[in-house]
Each structure stands twice: as structure tokens, then as C-alpha cells.
Amino acid sequence: MTEQDFILKSYNSNVKSGSVKWSAPSNIALVKYWGKKENQIPENPSISFTLSNCKTITEVTYTKKEDNSLSFDVFFEDKLNEAFKPKIQTFFERIETYMPFLRDYHFKIETSNTFPHSSGIASSASGMSALALCLLSIEENLGVDYADDYFNKKASFLARLGSGSACRSIEGELVVWGQNKSTQSSDLFGIKYDGEVHSNFKNYQDTILLVDKGEKQVSSTVGHKLMFGHPFAKERFAQAHDNIAALKAILASGDFKAFIKIVESEALTLHAMMMTSMPYFILMKPNTLEIINKIWKFREDTNSNICFTLDAGANVHVLYPEIEKDIVLQFIKNDLVSHCQNDQFISDSIGKGAQLIKH
After folding, report:
1. Tens digits of residue pLDDT in 104-124
2. Cα–Cα distances in Å, from 143 out to 13, 21, 26, 155, 358?
3. Measured at the alpha carbon of residue 171, what is the angle toward residues 26 and 106, in degrees to the nearest 5?
4. Rounded to whole angstroms, how far apart are CA atoms 258 and 239?
């Protein structure tokens, strides 16, 4: 499919008003996306686990208006939020070619997260995917009838234009984004992973340790741009392709130890790219490293299949199979929580994707 396939050709412009509501989850990449081209196209492929409990719930009420402006208000947790408006304005400007009805209506966007705001968990993926899904439902309310596959692809395509990783939050349990030779994939949208997945990786657990809830000193947007001219960028992009291929075989075989090597290496490589950018920066905190070292020691002492991954921040995602849930959670409470800000952590697991609440 191409960008042209997602342009809305006609719709019922006589619809006066309505309301739709979706929830969309966050996701955590196993093979990381870092670096992008124009129009939110990734420099390398990525694959992610969709989460279950960490999600954004968004309701959009639309009302017909007379002028031709892009008009919306954003409410976060029942309070008018002006800080979110510039990003949504940019998003609407990027997608209006594909959704020409955006200028026909005023939109009231009411959104909230199931996880603490400013907890250091990336909410752009869940937030932008929830908003994109709401807009797709509005499109259907204007008389367009979409098959589920097309609906999901267009929602993912639009979400990507708001936040790259948001395109991986439409479906579950594993989603691939970015062209590669090993899986069905596209640069334009995320695709539900269709390879074989061993029972070892079903209902995988993700406990998120909230190490630092402060605002990052370097945003992901800036970090992506620093991959331009990065001395190791070419090798990194090639490595991601190799790791996607390796992970495909690992997911099919159920090999925990090989899974751990790929996932932890990817996390550290992501942060190595940050530390070797120009200007260079570090998003990990001392407690991030303390947690990593304790995970390594626990794994060595117990032969557990626990591992960690990181997003572009200080928080640690602790991944482990469901069969080890009790022993790992006890380890987290005994030895890792003390390294979290205000002892905060979130227990999550792999989910099925976004859910329609009201159409």
C-alpha cells in the first residue's frame, strides 16, 4: 500500500455531531527504532510487545462548524490542557490530506492515562494511537465502511505521523514496523507479527520500574535527529535488521537465553547511540545501572529467565515469562523497588491491542 491509498475520497458532510471513544496501549520495543527519515519513516525496523494495562483512554466529540480552521480543545484528566495543543496541531496538519473532514468540525478531545502522568512512561505511543483510532471511527460515522484490516492499517499509518512508535500500539501481541527481509512489514504502518511464537513467549510479563519521573533533558525527537551523521548509524541500522532476523528464529524456538541476549543488547545499544551522538547525552540514571546489575546477579544465582529492556529514558522494563511471575515479583519488591522513585513500579503483561469503547 502507498500513502495515496489512505486518502479519504468522499464522506457524508451532513453529519452534525457525534462522539467516539477508544483505549490504546503503550508498547515496548524488543528491537529498537532510533533514527528516522522525513515523514516519520524509520531508519531501521523494530518489533515490540504491546502492553495491556498501560494505556490511554481518549474520547473525541465532534461538532459541525462553519469556518475552515483546524479547531480543537484538549482536556487531560478533566482539565483543559494547552500544553498538548501544539503537538496535536502538528498532527492534524500532517494528516488532513488523508482526513479532509478535519476542517469541518470542532473537536473536543478528552484523554487520560491508566498510568501516572509524568511517570517517565512514554505516553505518546498510546496517546497518538488512541486519537488516531477515534478519528478513524469518526470517518466511519461519516458514512465510510472499512474492513478491519484496512481500518487498522490506516489507524497505524495516521498514528505514525503523530509519534513513530504509536504505529505499533494498534494491534498486539507483537508488532513489526519498518521494512525488512525477515518479516511481513512496512515503513508506513505497523503490522501484527505473523511468525510462529513459542508458548514460552505467550503472556509475557513486563514490570516497569519507575526510576526517574522527571522530564528528559533530551527529547526523543531530538535524539532521533542526532542519528543524522552519527558515526555508528550505518552499523546500527544493519544490526537492527540482523536482530529482527535472529529474533524471528528465537520466538519460534522458545529459546529464552537467546531472547535475553538480543533484548538486553538492543537496550544497551539504544543508549550507546545516545552516548556517542554529537552532542552526546545520557538518559540512564545511577539507579538504572544498579537495577541492571542486580538483575544480572539474580539471573546468575537463580538461572531465572528474567531480563531488562529500556526505552529512551531511565526507567527499566523487567521482562520475564509468566511461569516465573511470583519469584520475580518477590525479587523486585525485595531488591529493586528501593531504586525506584517513591518505590513506584507498574506490573503489566503483553496485551492484544486497542479497544473500541464507544462508536
Report:
1. 999 999 999 998 765 656 689
2. 9, 18, 30, 17, 17
3. 75
4. 16
Distance CA 26, CA 118 (A): 14
Can you tell me the distance from the alpha carbon of 320 to that of 329, in angstroms, rounded to the nearest whole number? 10
C-alpha separations of 46 from 181, 260, 336 in Å? 12, 16, 28
Residue 157 grid cell: 499509518
- Within 256-285, residue ranges assigned H as helices are 256-275
What's the confidence (pLDDT) of residue 312? 93
The string of DSSP codes covering 299-355 is: HHHH----EEEE-SSS-EEEEE-GGGHHHHHHHIIIIIGGGSGGG-EEEEEB--B-E
Q: Going by DSSP bridges, is the β-strand pair 71-76/105-113 parallel, antiparallel, or unpaired?
A: parallel
Instruction: Check: CB of residue 206 under 8 Å from CB of residue 28.
Output: yes
All three cell numbers of 31, joined, read: 528491537
CA distance 346 to 8: 40
Smallest CA-to-CA distance from 110 within 25, 171, 19 is with 19
Query: Mean per-residue pLDDT for 68-93?
Result: 95
Q: Rounded CA gap, 25 and 223, in Å?
A: 23
pLDDT for the residue 11: 96
**What is the DSSP secondary structure assignment for residue 61, as one 8-state letter?**
E
Judging by beta carbons within 10 Å of its beta carbon (0-12, 13-18, 19+), is residue 66 exposed, middle or buried?
A: exposed
CA-based end-to-end distance of the chain: 27
Q: Residue 54 and residue 317: Cα distance in Å, rounded? A: 12
Among 49, 3, 253, 18, which Cα is nearest to 143's? 18
CA pair distance 257, 250, nearest whole angstrom: 9
Contacts of 83 (CB under 8 A, 6+ apart): none
10 Å Cβ neighbour count for 244? 23
pTM: 0.96
pLDDT for the residue 216: 81
